[in-house]
Design a protein that fits this description.
Layout: H1 11-25, H2 36-43, H3 47-59, E1 64-65, E2 71-72, H4 78-102, H5 105-119, H6 124-141, H7 145-168, H8 173-193, H9 196-211
Antiparallel strand pairs: 1-2
Helix pairs in contact: 1-3, 1-7, 2-3, 4-6, 4-7, 4-8, 4-9, 5-6, 5-8, 6-7, 6-8, 8-9
Length: 220
């Protein structure tokens, strides 16, 4: 995905948005060095807004700085992935339960469109983007402002996690797509039915099943 010259308004925000998309797309894979001079040249800006954007991405967990101030894309470890899943397990079942009680018809339309798009997804990157969007939709449908604030913090970590997980299992894209769509469809139908307890159970199972994909981690 090419980086494009950015407008002079909200430079750092525009740069961080482009870099975030490029990282998730795999243009800057795990461990890739993010050279400020290189990025500034490609984006057609000075180094100052690039530095500001990288600092913003660090707060989201999508960039890390070493002791010399150089930045790179984090290489998520097994423990990182388990930790991110633990946070999701704490948040998303509650969101699914609330969504089953509170979601309005517009939320169901958006979730159903997401499922249709996911069924047609052909690449791990596209699948990962739609996956995160589905879970974001459930959190929004919960109607809980505090849950949404918490999700905003972890969402970027989920993007990075899915991007790095999907890149490791590229050959299984279609299998992953079918498995993910089936799990999402079951959650969607349960939330739409209003069964809050079952929605919470399915959301938790969907996430704990991921632990079985991580080598050396038992499903809990």
């Amino acid at each position: 995905m090419p980086l494009n010259p950015v407008r002079r308004v909200n430079l750092a925000h525009d740069i961080s948005a482009q870099l975030s998309q490029a990282i998730v797309a795999g243009d800057f894979p795990a461990g890739a060095v993010l050279s400020e001079p290189m990025l500034a040249k490609r984006l057609g800006v000075s180094r100052a807004p690039v530095r500001e954007a990288l600092i913003e991405l660090e707060t989201r967990g999508m960039v890390e700085f070493d002791e010399r101030g150089r930045s790179r894309v984090p290489s998520l470890t097994h423990d990182d992935l388990v930790d991110i899943l633990g946070i999701r397990i704490a948040l998303e079942p509650r969101a699914a339960s609330l969504a089953a009680r509170r979601a309005d018809p517009l939320a169901f339309i958006d979730l159903e469109r997401n499922l249709d798009a996911m069924r047609a997804a052909r690449t791990p990157t596209e699948l990962a983007r739609l996956d995160t969007a589905f879970h974001s939709g459930i959190v929004r449908a919960s109607g809980s402002r505090r849950l949404h604030l918490c999700w905003n913090v972890v969402e970027h970590q989920v993007d990075l996690w899915l991007a790095q997980m999907q890149s490791r299992v590229d050959a299984l894209c279609h299998q992953l797509r079918d498995t993910t769509v089936a799990a999402h469809a079951a959650m969607f139908e349960t939330i739409r039915s209003g069964d809050a307890l079952r929605a919470e159970e399915l959301a938790r199972k969907h996430l704990t099943d991921w632990l079985g994909v991580l080598p050396g981690t038992p499903v809990v």
